[in-house]
Design goal:
Largest sheet: 5 strands, antiparallel
Shape: globular
Number of domains: 1
Protein name: DUF3024 domain-containing protein
Organism: Paenibacillus amylolyticus
Strand content: 35-45%
Strand order of the largest sheet: 1-2-3-4-5
Order of helices and strands: HEEEEEH
Number of strands: 5
Structural class: alpha+beta
Number of helices: 2
């Protein structure tokens, strides 16, 4: 994940946006962060929740109410890189969309 979050945002934009992630037990939360009103503070917006259930990774998307909804566009898979790639492609705009 370190390589992914580093490569996803071009170097010239890293003062305006960055990707971070949090790992806990059998889940990983991918976040987008942007500068907040105060200097040196960032506002965190969850993008995707990856979780291991059964023998596969499943994904939820953050909705407008700041809760998680199943991401039916992502096919569960035992290969984490496969589900990450599906989130990256996001042709329907479920994950990578403008946020308020």
């Amino acid at each position: 994940m370190n390589g992914y979050v580093h490569e996803k945002v071009p170097a010239e934009l890293r003062t305006m946006v960055k990707l971070t992630y949090e790992m806990k037990d059998h889940e990983l939360i991918l976040n987008e962060e942007r500068p907040a009103g105060q200097r040196h503070q960032w506002e965190r917006m969850p993008i995707a929740r990856f979780y291991w259930e059964g023998d596969q990774w499943k994904v939820c998307a953050s909705n407008d109410q700041h809760s998680w909804s199943p991401a039916d566009i992502v096919v569960p898979c035992s290969d984490f890189e496969d589900v990450l790639e599906q989130v990256e492609r996001d042709e329907s705009g479920v994950f990578w969309r403008e946020r308020d």
